[in-house]
Amino acid sequence: MKELMRRRKRGAIEMSIGTIVVIVLAMAMLVFGIILINNIRQGAVSNVNQMNDKVKDQINKLFVEDKKTVVYLPNQIAEIKQNEDWGIAFGIKNLAKGTAQTSSFDYSVVVSDPNVQKNCGVSETTIRDWIKTGQADKVNIAPGDTYYGIVRFLIPESSPLCTVRFHLEVKMNNAVYATDFFDVEATAK
């Protein structure tokens, strides 16, 4: 009887030690997994920030002395494949004279192709729906500062393959401040 009790205790202790080892190993793997995921996330954030800084630098190079807005696209055209998320970067510079105050700017991206129905076979509203985010916003810009924005497009797979002109219209304190244009060419996947 005593021998049986001793074997049970030894078995219970061995099982407890085995359970503790498994728990310690599982916790170590969890901690290493969390560290790995955090390192990947930090690397991705760093890469995105670096790309954003480079895009801002390129936009700043496009501003000439009296230019109030710029769109960052080669030849002012974006070739966007159907079902592809695409961002078009732009900048608005506050060159208002005679004020030291921050000014209020409104921008909107509008379809400015009067022949869109004829050329693409769809309505202006359908084309406007290509814009996923950034179609319009209100921003405050200090004198001499630049606002950087992105208009995101997602052209549905069922959309026609055609080219459409858009305008970036900027108002300062509800008065026309500047406009710029770009074209979006819908291409096949």
Structural account:
It is built from 3 helices and 9 strands. It has 189 residues and is an alpha+beta fold. It folds into 2 domains: 62 residues; 121 residues, Sandwich (Immunoglobulin-like). Strands 2-9-8-4-6 form a 5-stranded mixed β-sheet. A 4-stranded antiparallel β-sheet has the order 1-3-7-5, with helices on one face. The protein is elongated and about 100 Å long. The mean pLDDT is 82.
How do the strands and helices of this protein lay out in sequence?
Blueprint: H1 2-62, E1 69-72, E2 77-81, E3 85-93, E4 103-111, H2 116-120, H3 124-128, E5 131-133, E6 136-141, E7 146-154, E8 163-172, E9 175-187
Parallel strand pairs: 2-9
Antiparallel strand pairs: 1-3, 3-7, 4-6, 4-8, 5-7, 8-9
Features:
alpha+beta, Immunoglobulin-like, 189 residues, elongated, 4-stranded antiparallel sheet
Main sheet: strand order: 2-9-8-4-6
CATH architecture of the largest domain: Sandwich
The CATH topology name of the largest domain reads Immunoglobulin-like
Head-to-tail CA distance between termini? 79 Å
Domain module count: 2
**Low-confidence segments:** none
Q: Could you spell the SSE succession in H and E letters?
A: HEEEEHHEEEEE
How would you classify the helix and strand content by structural class? alpha+beta
The helix count comes to 3
Number of strands: 9
CATH class of the largest domain: Mainly Beta
Report the β-strand fraction as a percent range: 35-45%
Could you provide a short overview of the structure?
This protein is α+β, with helices and mostly antiparallel strands and 189 residues long. It has helices spanning 2-62, 116-120, 124-128; strands spanning 69-72, 77-81, 85-93, 103-111, 131-133, 136-141, 146-154, 163-172, 175-187.
